[in-house]
Amino acid sequence: MIKEGDTVWLKDKKNSFFIKLKKGEIFGTHKGNIPHDEIIGKSYGDVVQTHKGHEYVILKPTLYDIIMYGIKRKTQIIYPKDSAYITLKLGITDGMNVLESGIGSGALTIVMANAVKPSGKIYCYEREEKYLKNALENIKLAGFEEYVKAYHQDLSQPLPEDFFDAGFIDVREPWLYIENIKNSLKNGAPVGFLLPTTNQVSQTLEELEKYGFIDFEVVEILLRHYKPVPDRLRPEDRMVAHTGYLVFARKK
To answer: Are the C-beta atoms of residues 11 and 57 closer than 8 Å to each other?
Structure first.
């Protein structure tokens, strides 16, 4: 049964909307209004009508749905093809304290917060206040706000020493902050970086080696969908190809 505080996905043949339910609220569409109270108490798969009689199916969104179709993007996001690998590569799980810098629109934060719940936390450091505010709204939409602690600061400012079990950094010049990042990580902790160009990868690797990091990996992940038509099975015309280089290392 759907309850207050749930995020639901309303869909018809052409349109879709994501709503975090609150008693007494009304959601407006171009095809009519829907009181949240008329959704609360229904089951997923049920139909709800606007006051004009238009019908929407009520679906339970997955994290993939929320990230790809629900969140508001003010920056380029880290796509699920990358965030899933990042989360597994860093070994992120329940109870961990994870450093994230460069929160963007919060897509990766949502995935990592899902992994650390119920007793862990993601500590986000973002220097752009406009991005931070939007990301926190997206995280709230996904229902993970209690597992995220956000700070309006960049990596040049002090971080708690020997505190984080893992870290992921998505900033323009991460090589400037490697010493600060290292001091904040526990011994043996993994850390990852997202970088758009190969020269940035080289600069980051050089600095990581300088500060004694080990166990390096550089990877890019490509994803190709196929058209799900049995008698004409072929790749889609477009694909999510290069989105960035992922660099991983461990604090020695």
So the answer is: yes
